[in-house]
Amino acid sequence: MGSRTPAQGGAILDTTTEDRLRQREPLQRLRLGLYSYLLLWAATLLGIRTGLLQADTPHWLLFGAALLVTLLLALQSRYCPGRDPSTLAFPHLAVATALVSALMYYANEVRDMMMFCYFIIMTFGLFTLRLRQLILLAALILCCAGLLDALEWQRQADNKALLPTLAQLSLLIGGLAWFIYIGAHLRLFRRRERQQQLRLAAQQQHLEATNQRLRDALEALEQMAIRDPLTGIYNRRYFMERLHQEVARCQRHPRPLHLAMLDLDHFKRINDQYGHPAGDRVLEQVAEILGSLLRRTDLLARYGGEEFALLLVDLSDSGARQVLARLQQRLADPAVQAILPQPVTFSAGVAAWRPNDSAEQLIERADQALYAAKHAGRDRVASADD
């Protein structure tokens, strides 16, 4: 997918859509020019019939050449979509200038009135050309007008008055200068608008980045609030919240729920013999091993010290015992014991939820089963229902 860029009104446009719109713009402009040529051709035919234009006006040649150039520009725009639209607009307006100048050469009484066609061409250039191209277009119009006056003086040197010609030429120069002045200010406004859009886009990106950092920070704070800082598993506070939720859910819709309390055997020896840093590493490794063997729906938390709490959902009594037996077998694996300072085992007490049991009652029964497992020799699982 293309990147996204800000548009007016706060809307966001995909860059591929924006490029597609930019490619359509020169084609639409050329289509407008085609319609203008056809309308001007019809007016030319009417002028020839009414005598406003000379009967020998080569309209077929003039408009045929203009339409051919328009077709070539359309093909170039179609197969070279990456070009700047202004590079296609300038030759189109230059051809229009040459066409209007040729028609003015064959005009009779309406030649002075047709001078306003130059201003219409400049109006199109005002919104499509760059400032340098607009100046070149004005210079081209002025050259064409000067050439027409020169040809007119050559044909009617005796009957041509100098003052009206100079006045007309001065009016044309003033009008062209006005268009250039307006074009310069228009491009200045567009540049400022573009800079403002870029600033708004930069501010929007900055705000999005800031919001993302805030979301990441909030997520990190949330994880810090529910995770044990040493082992990375859930802490006791979050475990109690989930336990109350699961008990409440079972009270509404009864289903199997087991709570197991696990305590590492003789963990104090590890701290005394190897130091507390070694004991912390053992807790980290045991938590990682136990968590890797559980289902996504199971919940493992550090209940306190070397004691862990395990919440098993939708498992039978035998299924809960099998989970705990699998955890014991994994800890007894020689490959696991090799990375620990000394062999580590755990005692566990498991209790199944009973109707009308509260979370505290379930914890109390699991604790009693844990004490029973320890008194029976450790490294075993005791059930509160036995």
TrEMBL record:
InterPro entries: Diguanylate_Cyclase, GGDEF_dom, Nucleotide_cyclase, Rev_trsase/Diguanyl_cyclase. It is an enzyme of class 2 (transferase). It catalyses: 2 GTP = 3',3'-c-di-GMP + 2 diphosphate. This is diguanylate cyclase. Keywords: Coiled coil, Membrane, Nucleotidyltransferase, Transferase, Transmembrane, Transmembrane helix. CDD domains: GGDEF. Residues 255-386 form the GGDEF domain. NCBIfam families: GGDEF. Its EC number is 2.7.7.65. GO terms for molecular function: diguanylate cyclase activity. The chain crosses the membrane at residues 32-52, 58-75, 87-107, 113-129, 134-151, 171-189. Residues 200-227 form a coiled coil. The keyword Iron does not apply. SMART domains: GGDEF.
